[in-house]
């Protein structure tokens, strides 16, 4: 029997600053973003990114939070008690046992995007694992308006994972493959994960290639989030955070639909929440919390 | 900041929007709401501010279509009690 391959699985990893010596730092703050699909921990030393990790969330939020911070601190010589202030955010923010405070991920994503893409960013779209948020913010990364699509995993990372598994295509290849079609197909009529799954099977039976199905699904997802963005209005500059930001199949179609290019950043789009949380922790430390 | 609480589903968009810059922290809307949807809390979207503002209670956010229904004009009540109680006009309903 062939070995079962998990096509949805993306690579977990951690990063640390190659030169920075944290022992010289005065303020050590961290942010933990326990999302519904992925968890990140990020450590700031004097306001600079020192280390972070990006892992999958397990079924237990406190465990995931510990795993994330241990991942970030691995081989750095830093211990959990060296961190002076920790902010928890994301879906599991109230379940981070070592956090000093929990802050909603909307505020954290706006703050993180402000750091990652600069103060000119006004519209932040967070395409997360299980929900999608459109955020309008000011030049300091303070939220001025937001809209959240919850209640439903349609048009999110989890939906992409389900599609990857159904079509047996590694998740990181989805974006590129969705452009390998002769003609852009009509979007699938539903982005509901369960309905889209049966619709995809129906399309394949009627002769569609896998790439066509991917293209139809990506464009349906792009269309769905463009409606969400339409409600708060898209203003230049526009930045996308979360895992779907790495999927050009959705991002490029969304840019085309909105007629506006998303700002590119040198940082991993998935760390925005944890980065924002760590920046809040750093500010609270400076304020003497 | 405009805080939108609620959701969109197949039957429409159901959002209560609270303009936290207009909200004067008076708290009049809290007792005015018959099903107790609102509460006063620190602004969770501006963690560095100490101001308390009206918010929709967490457990109500995904069912306001139903919770707010008895107050809606279709049942012949006129202006919504929460909006009528808000002197600075910070509360709005999308439906």
Short description:
The complex is a heterodimer of chains A (289) and B (95). With 289 residues, chain A is α/β, with parallel strands linked by helices.
CATH class bucket of the largest domain in chain A:
Alpha Beta
> What is the CATH T-level topology of the largest domain in chain A?
Nucleotidyltransferase, domain 5
What is the strand tally of chain A? 10
Mean pLDDT of chain A: 90
The CATH homologous superfamily of the largest domain in chain A is termed: ATPase, nucleotide binding domain
The main pleated sheet of chain B reads as: 3 strands, antiparallel
Tell me the span between the first and last alpha carbons of chain B.
Answer: 20 Å
CATH class placement of chain B: Alpha Beta
Radius of gyration of chain A: 19 Å
- Outline of chain A: globular
Largest sheet, strands/sense/barrel of chain A:
6 strands, mixed
Supply the helix-strand structural class of chain A.
alpha/beta
Instruction: Enumerate the strands of the largest sheet of chain B in spatial order, edge to edge or round the barrel.
Output: 1-2-5
N-to-C SSE string of chain B, H for helix and E for strand: EEHEEHHE
Number of helices of chain B: 3
